[in-house]
Amino acid sequence: MLRHVTQRLTLLLISACAFAAHAEGVGLRTLETLEPITGTTVPAAIVYPSSDAKADALTWVGPYPVQAQRDGAVADGKHPLIVLSHGHGGGMYGHHDLATALARHGYIVVAPQHIGDSFDDMRGAGTDRVLLGRAWQASAVISAALKDPTLGPHIDAARIGAAGFSAGGYTTLLLLGAQPDFKRFFSFCEKYPGTPEICDKPFPAKMRTIDRPPPTADARVRAGFSMAPLSLILDADGLKDVKAPVFLYIAQKDQVLMPSENGARIRGLLPNLAQFREIPDADHYVFLAPCSEQLAKDVPRICTDGPGIDRAKIHERINADAIAFFDAQLKGEGAAPAGAKPNGTTGQVKSEL
Fold first, then answer.
1. How much of the chain is helix, strand and coil, in % rounded to 5?
2. pLDDT one-digit tens code per residue, 270-309
3. Tens digits of residue pLDDT in 87-126
4. Is the pTM of this model over 0.85?
């Protein structure tokens, strides 16, 4: 009996060392790396559990109030890594609240700024350099984080996940093995001409510019949290290789990526849908972090929600769902092996939450 108790305590101690306890403090760093396929230089924000950052630390980065302390010491132990991908025309701090929530629960989060499809550089929008390159950029920053002399020793390379919104939700699926069909853009725009951000401007003369592009799948990524993904260019054949578990989130009244042609449509096509949630009455941008006064003034479109929508409350649920999902998939005895059967859980996030 004593032997079994001792073994159990030893296992608990090993687990505690492998996955450090929740940190009150959160650190913030940046890095820059090269995506080798197109030669693009990619900056990224790194948010992580910190042993010396103040619990109430706040760092303003432009209009974003990031609840983290610059250059705080990384908390001891090995931490799972999440790559967090922003949407079309977004930036590395657009989901800072999700990043800091994950960091407080023991995750290191790396958030690339997708050059060619960011708020300050849209030169590659609509081309394979972005439509495929987003995933190559995400993989490049994963590799850079693993090699970083400060962060690398604290990352558990066997426990890596991906999360993203809109084009970032699509990027998450690419990392897990999805293969897009660009021709579907044209059939979609014939059906829904003038759709904002998709069909309201001509497509590039050359969408395909790279001969024999390498795969976008990254075998290191074991689970994906996909919010309102651009998925009109994904069909059953393009999703058949997405064997890792996926948590799929959509907004019921999404006016940018209509659910019937995107998230809701692929719900039944994902081989391993771990969980599905719909936010009633919400529009596309509800997934962005609640806006500061300055950001709401500068870009009201992405900061304005419909009647009855409390973005801050909804984000409490989104962030909690992301933590619970990655805990189940990447931490401890409950981690699901690759190819595990979906549990089929579904649900709605009530707008009053």
1. 30, 25, 45
2. 999 999 999 999 999 999 999 999 999 999 999 999 999 9
3. 999 999 999 999 999 999 999 999 999 999 999 998 888 8
4. yes
Beta bridge mates, 70: 28
With a CB cutoff of 8 Å and minimum separation 6, the contacts of 245 are: 223, 224, 272, 273, 274, 325, 329, 336, 340, 342
What is the tens place of the pLDDT at every residue in 38-97? Answer: 999 999 999 999 999 999 999 999 999 999 999 999 999 999 999 999 999 999 999 999
Residue type, 303: C
Task: Quickly count: other Cβ atoms within 10 Å of residue 158's Cβ.
Answer: 12
HSE-up of residue 237 (Cα within 13 Å, Cβ side): 3
Contacts of 263 (CB under 8 A, 6+ apart): 169, 226, 228, 229, 231, 248, 249, 250, 254, 257
Q: How far apart are CA 277 and CA 283, in angstroms?
A: 14
Q: Is residue 185 a contact partner of residue 104, using CB atoms and an 8 Å limit?
A: no
- Identify the CA nearest to 229 among candidates 291, 178, 281, 296: 178
d(CA 20, CA 18): 6
Alpha-carbon distance of 192 to 305, in angstroms, equals 24
Q: How far apart are CA 202 and CA 200, in angstroms?
A: 7
For 315, the token pair is: 């984000």
Contact 171, 138 (CB under 8 A): yes
User: Burial letters for 35-72: b for 16+ Cβ neighbours within 10 Å, e otherwise?
Assistant: bebbebebbbbbbbbbeebeeebebebebbbbbbbeeb
Range 260-264 contact pairs with CB under 8 angstroms and sequence separation of 24 or more: 261/188, 261/192, 261/232, 262/228, 262/229, 262/230, 262/231, 262/232, 263/169, 263/226, 263/228, 263/229, 263/231
Q: Quickly tell me which residue has 């450090």 as its tokens.
A: 20
